[in-house]
Amino acid sequence: MAIKLPKAVAAYFEADGSRDAESVSQCFIDAAVVKDDGTTYSGREAIRSWKAATSTQYSYTVEPFSITSEGRHVVVTSHLVGDFPGSPIDLRYVFALEGEKIAELTIIP
Q1: pLDDT tens column, 2-32
Q2: Is the entire prediction scored with pTM above 0.90?
Q3: CA-CA distance, 16 to 27, in Å (whole number)?
Q4: What is the CA angle 70-72-75, rounded to 5?
Q5: CA pair distance 62, 89, nearest whole angstrom
Q6: How far is CA 58 from the centre of its chain?
Q7: 23-27 LR contacts (CB < 8 Å, sep 24+)
């Protein structure tokens, strides 16, 4: 089932699918924060480095299948399949948006 994602969120998943760390980083505001796997990445350059490392470490596909709102956050639940430990898994991507960009992203099981 296809779901309608906000423009910035759709751009994030499209860039992630292409394994283009620079394009992923361009989805965020300059001072954005990403929290993933117990680590916090602050700023666009740190986000670019995080995505470059994770994109080359494992092969995976991400399929968003549910979207909800929690306060000012957009929560997208996605199914990940790949060659990483624990695959497959459903993860929640919790986005805070600022205009047409992502200000915060937390990825949690």
Answers
A1: 799 999 999 999 999 999 999 999 999 999 9
A2: yes
A3: 10
A4: 45
A5: 10
A6: 15
A7: 24/48, 24/51, 25/51, 27/101, 27/102
